[in-house]
Amino acid sequence: MAIILQISCNTPTDNQIKRIDDSTISEKLLDKKIKSLIDKANVTGIAISIFNYQDVVYQKAFGYSNFETKESLDVNHIFYGASLSKSVFAYLVAQLLSENKIDLDKPVHSYFDIELPEISIDKEFRRLHDLKGDDRYKQFTTRMCLSHSTGLPNWRWINNPDEKLRIHFDPGTNHSYSGEGIMLAQWLVEHITNEKLEDIAKEKIFIPLGMKNSDYLWRDDFKKHFCYGHSKKQEKLPKDIETEDAAAAGSMETTIIDYSLFLQNILQLSKKNSEVTKNLFAPTIRIKSKAQFGPLAKEITNEYDDIELSYGLGWAILKSPYGIGAGRGGHSEGFQHYSIIFPDKGIGVVFMSNSDNAESIFKELLEITIADTFTPWKWKGYIPYDLNE
């Protein structure tokens, strides 16, 4: 597989990039290692940004945006952001909290004049009527929604023949990843602000941060420069677009440039000891599961006690000798992303890929880019490609 490298600057450099353990890696050596990894693992395309002292010091794209046509991927390509949508939404909620417009621990149902099962939601497959008869929904809080501790499933239709929405454990007692919980928080935010998610996100995040190529809904101008997702066999997948119903849990389109602006802002706020980032990164619930998804998600382990793996508001939180790490992944058919920032060091990295093979190099990429050996790669399901052979 031929690898094409797109560099985001015009002058050849060999900058030294600082890592969290205070070691460094040269830009040229990093380029070489990344190209070798994506070649070995058949990763169609990947874009990477690295942060030092809160600023982007490395931002490049490798591989292809369309494997069929061999169009090179570049840093301006639009990616389907998948669950990176959740970290942006959590930041929105944290802003509303700082404005005293929302209380994270007030029961969600108490904001509405009618019971949650009866609130008006346009799409049948998102309605909450199945919760009628189980009064535990009255315990749901926004904090639970954003820390994945409501007891709601990821999506009601996964491994569930009747596709009914159910509460699987008492709210607030456990962690279990839930897109349904994030959507409930979205209904609340839209109710409180009397605005649609896509509009308030533009007002409070995308426009102020200069994220010109980001939106929770597909825009016509995205057609000019988007990348396709690709299967493990590098088959181009049809582009799925959302034009009507923004979803905080996963409808955002963005670029590596834009999402890097978002992460840079988060790092800068944390450096200023902002209440927004204090709330985002405050651990809400400890995680004891062997894996984030799949059958192992129901098994208990103490394997991650050394990093005190937890969930905050929309971010997974871990402890390291270099301070906390705040991680956020994104995974959907044909797209695999991951970011982690270490605010105390002002260092972080984000990977955005249009390949179903990308997660197989994330463990090694984290180690070579910023010396992150703390991300719980087995819990995340980031099994290295050479362990699958």
Structure, explained:
- The chain is an alpha+beta fold.
- The chain contains nine helices and 14 strands.
- Strands 1, 4, 5, 6, 9, 10, 11, 12, 13 and 14 form a ten-stranded antiparallel sheet that branches.
- α2 (84-98) crosses α5 (197-206).
- The longest helix is centred in the last third of the chain and has 16 residues, at 256-271.
- The two termini are 18 Å apart.
User: What about the largest sheet?
Assistant: 10 strands, antiparallel
SS field, number of helical segments: 9
Net shape:
globular
| Proportion of beta-strand residues | 15-25%
> How many strand elements?
14
- Estimated radius of gyration: 20 Å
Structural class: alpha+beta
Quote the distance from N terminus to C terminus.
18 Å
Mean pLDDT across residues: 95
- Indicate the low-confidence ranges by residue numbers: 1-11
What is the H/E order? EEEHEEEEHHHHEHHEEEEEEHH
**What is the share of helical residues?**
10-25%
